[in-house]
Amino acid sequence: MSSELQHENHLIQLRAKLNERKIKLWEVPYMQVEGDEQRHSNGVEMLRLAVQFGAELGIATELCLRTLTALQRNALDKLQSKDEFQRTGLATVRVRAPTQTGSNREFDLKVQVTETGGQLCELIGQRLSLDARKIKLVCSGKIINGVRTLQEQKVSNGATVMALVMACSEEEAKRECSTYDRVHKIRSDAEMLINENDSSNFLSDQSGNAIFLPKNEKQALLMGLTLYEKGKAAMKADSCEEALLLLLEADHDFRNCNSQLLNVVDNYALLNLDIVWCYLRLKNLNQLPDAEERLKVCELKFQQSYGKNMARVAAIRGEQSNEKILLVRLHLLKAVLYFHQNKRDDARTMFRVVETELLKLRIDDDCLSRLMECGYGMKECRIALRACSNDVEAAIEFIHSQRETRRVNERRSERERQLYRTIGHDASEGGDTLRLKLELVDQLMEMGYPEELAALALKRSANDINGALNELERNGEALQAELLRTVLVDEELQAKLEALGFGGQVAQVALKLMANDYDRATNYLLTNVQNGRYSEGLQRAIDVLERQGGSSSSSSRKGSVSEGTDQQPAAAASDQQPSTSKRTTSTSSDTSADEAKRQERKRKKEMLDLLFKSFSQDIRTTADAHLDLPLDEEMNLLEQYKKLLGME
Predict the structure, then answer these.
(1) What pTM did the predictor assign?
(2) With CB atoms 3.0 to 4.6 Å apart as the test, which of 159, 182, 402, 454 could cross-link to 444 if both were Cys?
(3) Between residues 25 and 586, which one has the greater pLDDT?
C-alpha cells in the first residue's frame, strides 16, 4: 500500500470528523491571535484533539497531529488566498504534476484570471524548469486552452490544475519533450487520413456491421474514435500522461458530434471510463467532481447499450457475457470514488460486489493453456473462456461462431459500401431512412435484374419493391443511363478487355454497366457483340455515354474507338485513327496530362499508405479488445482499498 494513499485515507477520515463535529481549526481555541492579529497554532489544543481523534480512528497520535496541522495550514492558506483574490483579483491555483515514479509534485501559483492559459503554462514551466510549450494543463476534465483567458475557462481562485509532464531524469526529459509533439502529430496525421478518405459514410461496429453516418457528423466522430484508439494504445504502453491528453482530445471531438449513434453504442461510455481510470493511475484524486460525472455518463450509456444490469446482453449472449468485464472496472472506480468521498459503507458494499465479479470472471490457467495449444491467440482465448465459464469445448465453438458472424457481416458491409459507390447513392442527410435494403436488392436479383440496376430502382422508389419493379419495367433505359454516369471505369480492367480485342468505348460501357465486374463485363460483350455488330441495347448505351461526355482519356490513348469496328483486328481498327495533326497533338497532350495525374495519385497513395501504416501500428486490430482485460490491476487496487477499509 502506498504511503500517499495511506495519507489520503487519514485526511479523509479526519476531515469527516472535523465536519461532523463542526470544528474549525482556523478559529479559537485551535488558533491563538496575538498583536496585529497574527495567528499561531495552539499546540496544546491541537495535541488534545489529536489524542482524541487518534483513539477513535486508530491512528497514532503523532501521525494524527501532523495530519491535523496540515489541514489547519491548508485552511489558513485558503482563507488568505480568498481574501487576496477579493482585494486584488490575484488567484491562487493549486498545481499537481504527476510523475512516472507514481508521486505528485504539488505547489501553489499566483495568477490573474484575466491571463491566458498559455501564460499559466509559462509560470508552471518556470517553476518546473521546463519548456512551457511541452506542458498541457487539465482542469475539471478539460484541457486548458492556451489562447483563452482563465476566467473564460472557469479557472478561478482555489482551482486545482493538473500539469501533464514527466519526471526530469535525462532519459525521461527526452520523452517529456516528445509527449506534446506526439499528441499534436497524432491529431494532424488523423486529420489527413480522414480528409483523404472523406467519401466513406460508414463505420463498422464490433461485429462488422456497417453503421451509417451523416457527413456533417462523420468527421468529428471519426476523429474522436481515432484519437481514442491512440489513447488506448498509450494506456497499454503505460504512458498515462499521453493517454489522458489523447482521451481528453477525443472527448472534445465526441462532444462536437450530435449523432444519436452515441446513445446506442458504447464507445463514448468506454472513453469516459478510461479517462477516470487514467485519473486513478496518475493518482489525481483532485479531479473527483469530473470523475463522478463521467462515471454517471458511463453507467447511463451502458444501460442504454446493454440494458439494466446487462439484461439485454444476457438475453442475447447468456449470463456469462464478456461485457460484464466492463462493469467490473466501472464498479471498482465507483467504489474508489465512494472511498475518497468518505462514503465508507457504500465503498465497502461496492468493493464486495467487485470481488464477487472478479471471482466469476477468473480464467482457469489449465483451460487457457489447452485452448492456446489448439492454435488460438491469447486474447481470443481469454474472451472465449470468460464467455463460456472456462468450458474449453464451448469456448472453441464460441470462437468459430464469432469469427463466422464477423465474416458474414463484413462481407455484407463491404457489398453495401461497394454498391453505394457504384450507383452514387448519397444518403448523408437522411440517415438510416435512406439506406437501401439489401434483402430487397436480392429479391430483384432473383427475378433476373442486375444488382446495380435493382439498387438504382430501389433508390428511386425509396425501398418500395413494387415501385422498383415499375421503374425497371418502364424506365430501364433511364436507369442504365444513370449507371453509365455514376460508375468510374477501372483502367486495368479496361486494358484487359482491350487486350481481348474489344474497343475502348465498348469496354468502358460494359464495365460501367457491370460495375467493374470483369467476368460479367466479358460475358456481356460476348453476348452483345457478334461479328463486329452491336446489339441494340449496347448501341443505345454507347450513344448515352457519348451524350454524357464521351469515353475517358484511356480510350483516346489506346486509339481504338469507332462504331462497328471495336472487335476488328488491330490493323482494321487503325483505319479509324484520327487523321489530322491537330487531333494527334491533342491526344498526345491529353495522354501526357493523364499520365501526370496518375503518377500524382500513385505518389499520394504511397504517402498515405506509409502514414497509415505508421499511424496504425500500435492500434488494436481485434474488435473485442476492450473486453480483454487481464484484471490484474483491478485485483491489486481491490486489495489495497480493502486494507484501508479494514475488510480483511
Answers:
(1) 0.71
(2) 454
(3) 25
